[in-house]
Structures are given as C-alpha cells and as structure tokens.
Amino acid sequence: MFVDHTLESAPVASRPVMEAVAHRMGGHLPPAVARMAASPELLEGFMTLTAMFDRTTLEPVARETVIMAVATRNGCQVCVDLHTRKLRALGAGTAVIAALRDGTPLPDERLEAVRRFVDAVYATTGEVSDEDLAAFLSHGYTERNALEVVMGIGTYTMSTFANRLTRA
Questions:
Q1: Is 165 in contact with 74 (CB distance < 8 Å)?
Q2: What is the mean pLDDT of each run of 10 residues along the chain (168 residues)?
Q3: Exposure pattern of 60-92 as b/e (b: 16+ CB <10 Å)?
Q4: I want to staple 66 with a disulfide (CB 3.0 to 4.6 A). Which of 41, 130, 134, 152 is the partner?
Q5: CA 162 to chain centre
Q6: Which parts of the chain fold into alpha helices (H)?
Q7: 94-102 vs 77-89: helix axis angle to the nearest 10?
C-alpha cells in the first residue's frame, strides 16, 4: 500500500528532508524514509528527534544499544540491519552485536545495563523501580542519561512502528 516516494512524488513538505537524507547518503534514499515521506510531519519529527538523540551525552555505542533494544523488541528488521551496520562502523565487537540482534545479555556490563534499563522502561511504561534505576546509575550513567534513554525509546518506537506499518 505505501509507496516509496521519490523527490518528485513526495508531498512538497517532505522533499527538503528527503533531499537532506539523500545528500548525506550519497544520493541513496532509504525505503524507510521514502515511505515515511507520506507524512511530512512524521518524517521531519523522526529526523529531528534522531539528530537530537545523537547529541545526547550517551556515548555512541550506548545510543545504538538503546536503538537495537527497541528495534529487536518491536521486530523491525530493517532497523536491526541498519543499526548493525552502524555498530560495526563504531567498532562494536561481534559478540555485542550478536547479543543485541538476539535480544540476549551483552558481554559488556555497561552496555548490558543500558539494554536492561530499556527493558525496564518498557515493562513499566516508565515507572521503573528504584532498584532498576539504581542498577543503571551504578554503571556510571546519570539521571540525565536515564532521560536520554527514554528519548531514544520514544524516537525509535515511532520509527519501528512506522517502518512496520509501511513494510519498509
């Protein structure tokens, strides 16, 4: 049902975002972006939130851990594949990547704390226990990081749901 929009077929309001993505990706427009373009507001919102999440104080591999935890939980294969490539580019080990893809405990204690915290946030719809928050913080993370995880969950839940809806 959803089509892969081009710059010519997309709603006018989606075109500047699509052009920016294509420029960053050497002319390639990912199917997820081409399909999200049916809603300029969703596309712009996702791209804006992604850029903001990328500026958080969480280190890049921790951010990707959040994203992969969301993607595997929500069954977004296109997301898992894309973020697997990002993790490789960041130098994440194969054991970490495999565990994230499988949704199993990570061999890196600090990243595992992130993955467990994502699970706790989802399981409690944000009302994590004092123990779960303390466990996350005990690995050197901060209250700010906890809120940044929530931001990542929100951003990538939107993306995974949209990608699944559009069959990206």
A1: no
A2: 95 98 94 97 98 98 98 97 97 98 97 98 98 98 98 98 96
A3: ebbbbbbbbbbbbbbebebbbebbbeebeeeeb
A4: 152
A5: 12
A6: 15-24, 31-36, 40-54, 60-73, 77-89, 94-102, 109-123, 130-137, 143-166
A7: 160
Verdict on whether the full-model pTM lies above 0.90: yes
Residue type, 11: P
The closest alpha carbon to 111, from 122, 99, 123, belongs to 99
Number of residues written out for the chain: 168
Closest by CA position to 162, among listed 100, 87, 82, 78: 78
Q: Rg of the chain's alpha carbons, rounded to an integer? A: 16
Q: Report yes or no: 65 and 87 within 8 Å, Cβ to Cβ.
A: no
